[in-house]
């Protein structure tokens, strides 16, 4: 007799996996899910490639000069990098100004009052070009002054060519604060977007099954608890896969486009790994609440009202993490608050100002909170799932007998 019950129990236990597979298949057929994945992937790759493309390459400028000013800006300086200046010698100042007005050159270098040079532009002069012309003209005029005083030109050039002070870093592995802020915001946005997208998808799936009365057929073959587990697991696996894809795409983009930047940020892989771990627990903590919000609604039109409390639990910590950019008491506290720690603690790990026990403690707090929220959400879900005639308030869903 026990041999007949064991396969039956095994079949019941595997029903959650059948539900999970069904959720995965439906989501993969959803054009909105495919579009959001492609869109986020494009955003991540653009964020890694565009800075290098916009800042890379050589800046090329054309400058009009006269016979008098050409020698003063003809010699490139050692400090010039990724800048190429082409000089166009013209007969006089009016001819140079005509080229500036027509846009054929970026600027003109002309004689000014009292022997001082003028850099002439139309509405403005590019900042990079101004620095180059200032350095060239200053060096040429200083050399001319030394020569007028009888100083040998080679000696003067050697003095002016004295290298700048060497740079020594006390903490070369420290991450730039701006980089920490930007990557921290990226962690927050990813967590917020994925949890919101997949959470709302879970709620919609539940309420659609209620509205079409499919749920009444499902619960005759699948226990309600197994149905809940399957929905959470199926969407959770897809969310984790999407997150892993985006993180790997980001690393690949940095490796190809900004390898030096990636090499200078040794804490990024560790912070990304912690972010994935925090994401898994954070998603598990909130996804059951999304399912409960869907179960409490009877129609898709009612979902917005029942899902609003869950949306607030996602949005408020997200905005709080935005304002906790700088290290301090607020950021430290938020890194232990269960709803905000998945977004804030990886940022602190990235900055390198946490001990190993801190993210572990934060994970324990999330896990404990998840146990409570899952128990609450499960009761709301089980009590509301078969109530298809009307939407339930939170109090009614909690009190209704299962």
Overall description:
With 402 residues, this protein is mainly alpha-helical. 68% of the residues lie in helices and 6% in strands. The chain has a four-stranded mixed beta sheet, with helices on both faces. Helix 5 runs antiparallel to helix 6 and helix 14 runs antiparallel to helix 15. It is elongated and about 100 Å long.
Features:
2 domains, elongated, four-stranded mixed sheet, 402 residues, mainly alpha, 4 strands, single chain, D-Maltodextrin-Binding Protein, domain 2
Report helical residue fraction.
55-70%
- Give the spatial strand order of the biggest sheet: 2-1-3-4
Order of helices and strands: HHHEEHEEHHHHHHHHHHHH
Secondary structure class reads mainly alpha
Strand residue percentage: 5-15%
Contiguous helical run count: 16
Mean pLDDT: 79
How many strand segments?
4
Largest beta-sheet details: 4 strands, mixed
Shape: elongated
Provide the domain count: 2
Low confidence ranges: 1-10
What distance separates the N and C termini? 31 Å
CA radius of gyration = 32 Å
List the helices and strands and how they pair.
Blueprint: H1 2-13, H2 15-29, H3 31-55, E1 59-65, E2 83-89, H4 93-102, E3 107-111, E4 117-120, H5 127-148, H6 153-160, H7 177-211, H8 214-221, H9 224-257, H10 259-263, H11 268-296, H12 303-322, H13 329-334, H14 341-351, H15 357-384, H16 394-399
Helix pairs in contact: 2-9, 3-9, 5-6, 7-9, 7-11, 7-12, 7-14, 9-11, 11-12, 11-14, 11-15, 14-15
